[in-house]
């Protein structure tokens, strides 16, 4: 494979990732803004302040990504300047929090969301230095290992062409080969990026589905006088905490990091500690005598289902024998 083809392939990969990163970051900003507009926070005015922060972040990151798409070395330094510029927006919610402590939940959620966003931006920044395709696109450096990978890819493509020719020559034989080949992928271990996508679907799906379920069946969690529903607020907080905590292993898995399993165990510990804290919160509602026992039974079963689904998505990560390669080609 000649240098022009390698550079072209690297450019396409990098630009495709830049587009994906920007869409993902935009989705995170929109999710934070939308959540702040919910009646749950009782401080929807601050949501408009965050909208300004989100637009500022989106514009700064867009300019940095446009520069990165050019493939110039200095564009990576520009990205870090943009990264530090986004950190400056933390001043707005921190100042608002100090001036309005009773609305701690709104500002705390905003700060938590912004912190997660900065973690994402940091990992994205490291991608432009560590990824082999980025080293080709920005530094014009082709390692011997990467060159070997390209050669292997070429050999694989040639084998596919030969297989297609054989398929035309002898369909019966090819059908048997296909049956044998189809059995192999079933036994293969899922890669960390695949597990990250799987975990992300589960975690963020729970964040949407379970609060909606509680809202739809709010009568099951209502107080004796049917005026109060504790489950709406608590389930939303539980789901937000889970989504916030598990975002970290999703990023580690997506970037094929060897420490991913340790991060997952840390998240499990955080969930256990949070569950203990939540037990005392729910016990406070029970001791108040405002709610029937069935409300707590239904809530417990629903939260148990939430954790069962989470365990379903986490278990393959813990039992996986997959070992990420030192050379990563996402």
TrEMBL record:
This is Uncharacterized protein. Keywords: Membrane, Transmembrane, Transmembrane helix. It comes from Dubosiella newyorkensis. It comes from the Bacteria. The keyword Methyltransferase does not apply. The chain crosses the membrane at residues 14-34, 46-70, 77-98, 104-129, 195-216, 236-255, 262-282, 294-314. The keyword Transmembrane applies.
